[in-house]
Amino acid sequence: MLAFISFFAFYFSAFETNSYYQIDYKNFYQLTEVNKKVDWLQPNIQLLEAAIFHCTNEQRVKNKLPLYKYAIDLNKAANYHSNSMAKYNFFSHVNEHEKNMKAFYQRMKQYGGSFNGCGENIAYAEFDYSYSYLEVATDIVELWMNSEGHRIHVLSTVYKELGCGVGIKKVNAFQRVYATQDFGGKRNSVQP
User: What is the torsional sign of CA 89, 93, 95, 96?
Assistant: First the structure.
């Protein structure tokens, strides 16, 4: 019986996480959990990553651009990089700590992504317990929108797919959120 309950709990959480990307940003913003304060002791990383994804697509709608399609391989690459930045305490597109995952295109390739055109945005910001998941995501996307180079990626007409990853590290009384966006253009028909 316990195995059945565990399987059911796993299946339900996997379905719930995947369903974050099955709705548009307006419906996502109406979800109860995205408007709750982040419990930094047990944060819902998948929810925060989805919130960043949807806040990014909101910016695309505001600029009359097509929505980014969610890409699990890009999400995994972005998540990996954000967690590496948190683990090794660095902030760069280049991961000097892991030779085979040094550049963003290596990380994308590692998780199965092969694109004709790709890019990456990174950011970090510190938060306390007063922020909801949506507020954290909004603040991070706003950082990118206020930076010309990052804004170009968010509003690109070349990129079609997006994955967003988050890593978290406690810094004094705050939680530092490292966020990565990995963008992909047209997928190569021959995978590496």
Answer: negative
